[in-house]
């Protein structure tokens, strides 16, 4: 397999982008990415998008985006694994480079979620759960994660305040991210006094409904060295895994098996252990998710995620910073774009370009992107060389 | 890149399978495939499905299918390129094998289309066209292909009777396919007297709305030789390309550029020319599509597709048999499954197992799977070794 480098990154503002369509933001992120890369060569396109069918009545993004990028005649593919679609698009782009089928592989993540009423957005998102055994019976994503939170609280004594601290930390980080949907600081009281959504989760425990897109351009390390536009950042490992889609099919609720396996695979491919990683962008679609993910990957011991968050272990200046971008909570969560936006943040940090939210001296970063309530997960290991 | 072999194929009955769900038929095709392969090893799953979101309110098939196949912990991915989703799933499975990331890669194509009313199926299918510039204004797929048919008739003098003959031929072939949705013979009169759908296309020019699934298991040639269960069939080339999604963006209406490019790429990878190919399964979603595809790939000269069909060139006993399975018209067209079902037919023919519809002595076959009105296309070259 050929070694893979990231030579371009691009992103749009995240938020309610009512004046822009899906094709507009997908192309905007890609053009920003090509500008950053200093090349306009693309040999293939992989697009991560969860549900453009249900959100805007448009499938066949492979053709649509190739068309509006003016890049016909090349292989183009849309991949979907619910909210892990973006991570999967990057994994597929890695496969294009690794085989040598493409020398320049573009991955785009995109979702346009605000063109429908709230009820329809909730219906679309629930299609990531088991339609027959979960969604049909009325459960929504806040409800599924509320059950995971309850299980964690029961087993480990995780508190409401600890959950709130995940949101407080991520909003602090996001307050320094100009592309974030909600770039402002909040306090524990903001979270604890916000509207109850699905007990114990309140509004400020939940990531928002967002429009946005992000793009990365991959090539071989050999090609990247020729361009020399940026410090060399490589993708040294990727891992992907599935788990049961319905919570009732899982062996365990206080650990996410797909997260554990996908991270272990990515680390193995990179020849690294979790102790070699300096920081991570992880899938905090709800506050409990970040805690579950950190414990499942072995960054923090079982049941220690809540206390570690309160102690500042995962803060921007902590021992293992998590979600310097602001995470899904503050930055926003355009579901199909999230996995690519995580790569954007990690590459920017590894280049030392993250301005006020820069973590000093980081050399290795990890991304973890989750589908549904943990039914799938995709991880990448990135390293500055 | 490692060489790729097909060691297992599986399919379900195509038709209105009201008593079975999407997960049932996906798993049924996969189990048939593993039975055929004589192994139950799967290292990764790629699922082609166009619009389970709009058809049954279910995304996240990567998790759902891995779950119901009892294969958690492995990479699982759904890919979508409208009606070319199945072909793209096979291409992605090829990439898994070629990189060495997987030694056994399963590709499944599936669509459950009959659980919604007809109006909703037409809406879902129209999401493969440009939503903003085509579908929103009321055009449906029969309408788009009717315009392509009109352009071809105007330019080359293609006749209504020639179009009808595509359907007559494919129904003749399909009458010998026990899995076909409509396994019966028809005459030119059946087509010419059927209900007008979108002038000049009548009901019997159109492929039906279908439930169905198909699966193929790929491995390396080295592994396949060890198993020795079937004659060795290899995938020697694959090619994929995009074109403008909307007809109004195309330079040309009487040739499908994505088809031309994808076939040329697949042939180049295989080190073959079109003259080396013995037969093909192609995307006859409408009668005009088969003619356009054959001309675009250079199997028949421009404008000669209609007369060649009437002359029997593409018949089962003709010089270049096309759609021995019965094609989308007679076999049925569960959109996401079609590309994988094409591989099923070609492998079965190359193994000499196609019974009454067996083409004698075939050694090389081609599949061509199309998205939308030609906005994407995926081709594979298969060879008996």
Give short descriptive properties of this protein.
homodimer; 385 residues; alpha/beta; Peroxisomal Thiolase, Chain A, domain 1; 2 domains; nine-stranded mixed sheet; 14 helices; 18% strand; globular
What do you see in this structure?
2 copies of one chain form a homodimer. Chain A has 385 residues and is of the alpha/beta class. Chain A has 2 domains: 4-117 and 210-227, Thiolase/Chalcone synthase (Peroxisomal Thiolase, Chain A, domain 1, 3-Layer(aba) Sandwich), CATH 3.40.47; 140-206 and 236-384, Thiolase/Chalcone synthase (Peroxisomal Thiolase, Chain A, domain 1), CATH 3.40.47. The first copy, chain A, is built from 14 helices and 11 strands. Chain A has a 9-stranded mixed β-sheet, with helices on both faces. A two-stranded antiparallel sheet of chain A has the order 5-6. In chain A, a hairpin with a 2-residue loop joins strand 5 and strand 6 (201-202). In chain A, helix 4 (85-99) crosses helix 14 (338-350). The model of chain A has no long low-confidence stretch (mean pLDDT 97). Chains A and B meet through helix 2, helix 3, strand 3, helix 4 and helix 5 of A and helix 2, helix 3, strand 3, helix 4 and helix 5 of B.
